[in-house]
């Protein structure tokens, strides 16, 4: 088996990037990047921004990895089924749905085709939970699968029965309960089929979908890693193995273990925009900004070509984050300009709305352009946890530019957003808005001269933020609360305390520009010149020559 782990000489600054262009406009094939020596191939050009989402094309020339999912349906649909499951593993859900429908049409007795259609509606790692309309569609498809399952194998029947638990009584049973029922059924299926890679993979994915973001021990994630790492050795070209291993390792504690999979996934499925983007989850957690930039530039290009506006915006948000951490402000500004040129974005789609609101906030706040942060337009129609990002930006921008009274209405807006999120019983996003509210109140208190209150509020926000794992939708908070606490302590002439906060922030967010520069300043003010020099050296190394 070929080794996908980067060699000792494979430092990212020495990586070889070569363009691989396979554009076919008639079939909407994708201009993508691939890895060489553990790094992504670099794209030669970008396309203008997408205006709206479309069904994703599925040209036969797509490279999606190697999947073998044996089924008892007609032999003539087996290869199509394998390929369509590969689409599913790379979260190309609308394309997978189309593929499974074609299989059902080709073989009307194929129960697993209807299982696949129902599976394409269950976006396990996306937020918010599945819509009522898709729940009903999924319920009908899994019912069709059950009608046909007498001709299926016991293993296939177990896949169908497990998914039926998720769709059962969905109008009255909470999403979390149905997801747990599905996970337990998949655990049983995986236990009975220890040598079946697909049983193991769908169980690992179910574990990730039910992982608690407040579980700092990462219990489900570590269990998934134990399943996936041996599979990665045995099936190095399987898209689901690499993909889910990246998700399982999407935390500071586990990120290093996910690096081999991150280096591999874009090679395995270069036609899937999500496969081009996913490595950047690991690159972000390890502070590999240039790798993250290349990954998301490629993903954005491919997503645009396939009309996948959600994946395009998601990649753009990660790209904005990496540009800012690398000090590439001119490119970040151009990216924001391109976002502003994308009309009629479906911001009620969480994935789209989050990125569209987070990007301008990142651009303004990371650069400490407070007036700019205070003037970011609200995007009507966005979900309350998304609108909260803009209200937070307003409050922070106004308070830090010496206008605390003007910040108070924005704090009230944040309060209203918090109430709306709590009504949806979403503990994670309610906690995130509470953290933002604490930060806004802290900077407003500081602007009013209430220094001790400001420190206390920011410290509480930092402790609350530390208690939650980040969700895949985001590369991280706009600015971590602990980094903000260090910034405040530095302003108050308490450099030793500030240094501690910046160093603590860098443990969970390595390579963050604000924490590195803050730590360097704090160390210098505290008289630790050797430490200040080290931070400054790391900061300088993160900036490519000629960056703006």
Can you describe what's shown?
With 548 residues, the protein is mainly alpha-helical. It has 2 domains: 12-57 and 81-333, Serine Threonine Protein Phosphatase 5, Tetratricopeptide repeat (Alpha Horseshoe), CATH 1.25.40; 334-541, Alpha Horseshoe (Serine Threonine Protein Phosphatase 5, Tetratricopeptide repeat), CATH 1.25.40. The protein is 63% helix and 1% strand. The protein contains 25 helices and 2 strands. The chain has helices at 78-89, 93-106, 111-121, 132-148, 154-167, 175-192, 197-209, 219-234, 239-248, 255-268, 273-277, 279-285, 289-305, 309-325, 329-340, 350-366, 370-374, 384-400, 404-423, 427-447, 451-466, 481-491, 495-508, 513-525, 529-541, and strands at residues 35-36, 39-40. The chain has a two-stranded antiparallel ribbon. Helix 3 packs parallel to helix 5, helix 7 runs antiparallel to helix 8 and helix 7 (197-209) packs parallel to helix 9 (239-248). It is elongated. The model is unreliable at 1-55 (pLDDT under 50).
């Amino acid at each position: 088996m070929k080794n996908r782990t980067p060699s000792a000489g494979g430092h990212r600054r020495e990586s070889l990037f070569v363009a691989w262009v396979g554009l076919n406009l008639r079939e909407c094939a994708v201009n993508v990047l691939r890895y060489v020596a553990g790094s992504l191939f670099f794209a030669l050009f970008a396309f203008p921004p997408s205006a709206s989402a479309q069904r994703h094309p599925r040209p036969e020339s797509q490279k999606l990895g190697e999947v073998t999912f044996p089924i008892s349906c007609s032999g003539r649909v087996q290869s199509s089924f394998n390929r369509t499951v590969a689409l599913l593993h790379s979260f190309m859900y609308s394309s997978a749905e189309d593929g499974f429908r074609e299989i059902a049409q080709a073989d009307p007795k194929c129960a697993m085709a209807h299982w696949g259609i129902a599976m394409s509606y269950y976006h396990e790692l996306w937020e918010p939970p599945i819509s009522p309309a898709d729940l009903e569609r999924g319920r009908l498809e899994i019912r069709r699968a059950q009608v046909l399952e007498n001709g299926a194998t016991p293993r296939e029947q177990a896949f169908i029965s497990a998914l039926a638990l998720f769709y059962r009584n969905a109008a009255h049973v909470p999403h979390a309960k149905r997801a747990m029922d599905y996970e337990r059924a998949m655990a049983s299926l995986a236990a009975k089929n220890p040598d079946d890679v697909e049983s193991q993979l769908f169980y690992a994915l179910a574990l990730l979908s039910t992982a608690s973001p407040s579980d700092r021990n990462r219990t489900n994630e570590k269990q998934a890693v134990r399943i996936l790492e041996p599979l990665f050795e045995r099936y190095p070209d399987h898209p689901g193995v690499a993909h889910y291993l990246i998700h399982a390792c999407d935390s500071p504690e586990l990120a290093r273990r996910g690096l081999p999979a991150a280096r591999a996934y874009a090679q395995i499925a270069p036609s899937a925009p999500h496969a081009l983007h996913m490595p950047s989850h690991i690159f972000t957690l390890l502070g590999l900004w240039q790798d993250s930039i290349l990954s998301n530039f490629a993903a954005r290009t491919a997503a645009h070509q396939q009309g996948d506006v959600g994946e395009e915006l998601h990649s753009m948000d990660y790209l904005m984050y990496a540009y800012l951490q690398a000090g590439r402000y001119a490119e970040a500004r151009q990216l924001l300009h391109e976002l502003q040129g994308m009309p009629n974005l479906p911001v009620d789609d969480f994935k789209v709305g989050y990125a569209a609101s987070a990007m301008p906030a990142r651009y303004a706040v990371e650069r400490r352009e407070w007036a700019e942060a205070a003037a970011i337009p609200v995007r009507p129609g966005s979900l309350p946890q998304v609108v909260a990002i803009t209200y937070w930006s307003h409050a922070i921008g106004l308070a830090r530019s010496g206008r605390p009274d003007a910040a108070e209405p924005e704090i009230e807006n944040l309060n209203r957003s918090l109430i709306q999120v709590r009504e949806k019983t979403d503990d994670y996003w309610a906690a995130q808005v509470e953290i933002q509210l604490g930060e806004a109140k802290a900077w407003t208190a500081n602007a009013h001269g209430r220094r001790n209150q400001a420190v206390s509020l920011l410290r509480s926000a930092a402790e609350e933020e530390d208690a939650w794992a980040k969700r895949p939708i985001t590369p991280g908070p706009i600015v971590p609360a602990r980094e903000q606490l260090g910034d405040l302590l530095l302003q108050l002439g308490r450099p030793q305390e500030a240094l501690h906060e910046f160093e603590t922030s860098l443990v969970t967010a390595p390579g963050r520009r604000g924490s590195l520069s803050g730590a360097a300043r704090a160390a210098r003010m505290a008289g630790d010149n050797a430490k200040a020099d080290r931070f400054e050296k790391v900061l300088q190394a993160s900036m490519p020559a000629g960056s703006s």
